[in-house]
């Protein structure tokens, strides 16, 4: 079984598409959430950055507007006490049982951290995340008051009256050594940006080796930006237009903090830029030009081709051990609708030949 995750934001915008109107558009959020549900997505990511609208509020709106769609709510440790964050997630889960997941964003961009008043270095942030998740799990599971004494957090007689009936899964991203060390200890799902197949296979092996001493067997996610069309030629025409528009907007996006100031300080960005330097297309149709144009400040590698070709490439990731596919487009609403075809094609193949993947 493959899990599909999309993305819901509060305004129709992307690297190639300038947003219009208010940053928060409630009607748009509801329409976009329902489009994802109708297309067969399992969850949608509610992303986080320093200037973003509050994710808990957005997640509540998404959950209220849909019947089965789950949310993957991004959260940066360090700004809210772990006991408080644990109760916030547990409360959301109590209203929408089994539909809430936590995506841990430790933070790789010093400038974006500083906008919210955090001036710690990356190594410190990962040590803090480790403690944050220790306390969070205790708050979710403790039946009697507990104490905790750490470098960053101290708790005396902590106890929550609201605890998730089931487990709220923890997703975790990061390519650095610090990220692997902490993520392997805590993650239920370890998330990667869209690298070539060999790179993802290498990273899966690395995380599995780091998780083994903790007795953990995480699942794995890959984030990609599919650009499908009815024909391969039409897909490439659209891809080149998206690249042109993205380059036009680059200056505006950098001023707004959309692109990182120094992408090569982030290991994940360095990896994507390295692949972009090695070639514009990897494997069958992994396209790196958009990663280079944006400085690889996030999920920015695309799969370009017909719907059948892109579905085939998604299945290639499943064959090497990926169980979650996070796919989002450059025209968020229409792509969420169109991706229903990709989800159907992938699921049909899995239903026909489960032993081959």
Q: Can you list the strand order of the major beta sheet?
A: 1-2-3-4-7-8-9-13
Rg over alpha carbons: 20 Å
Q: Could you give the distance between the termini?
A: 10 Å
> What is the CATH level 1 assignment?
Alpha Beta
Shape: globular
CATH superfamily: Luciferase-like domain
How many individual β-strands?
Answer: 13
Provide the residue-averaged pLDDT.
Answer: 93
The proportion of residues forming helix, as a percent range, comes to: 40-55%
Our estimate of the beta-strand percent is 15-25%
Give the biggest beta sheet. Answer: 8 strands, parallel, barrel
Structural class: alpha/beta
Number of helices: 12
Number of domains: 1
CATH topology: TIM Barrel
H/E element sequence: EHEHEHEHHEEEHEHEHHEEHEHEH
Can you name the CATH architecture? Alpha-Beta Barrel
Poorly predicted regions: none
Offer a concise description of the structure.
By secondary structure, this protein is α/β, with parallel strands linked by helices. 46% of the residues lie in helices and 17% in strands. It has helices at 26-39, 55-65, 82-95, 110-115, 122-141, 177-186, 197-211, 232-255, 267-278, 289-294, 307-319, 332-352, and strands spanning 3-7, 43-46, 70-75, 100-104, 146-149, 154-158, 170-173, 189-193, 219-229, 281-282, 286-287, 302-306, 324-327.
Q: Please, could you describe this protein's structure?
A:
With 357 residues, the protein is of the alpha/beta class. The protein is globular. Strand 5 and strand 6 form a beta hairpin. The chain has helices at residues 26-39, 55-65, 82-95, 110-115, 122-141, 177-186, 197-211, 232-255, 267-278, 289-294, 307-319, 332-352, and strands spanning 3-7, 43-46, 70-75, 100-104, 146-149, 154-158, 170-173, 189-193, 219-229, 281-282, 286-287, 302-306, 324-327. The chain has a single domain (3-226, 306-356), classed as Luciferase-like domain (TIM Barrel, Alpha-Beta Barrel), CATH 3.20.20.30. The longest helix has 24 residues, at 232-255. It is built from twelve helices and 13 strands.
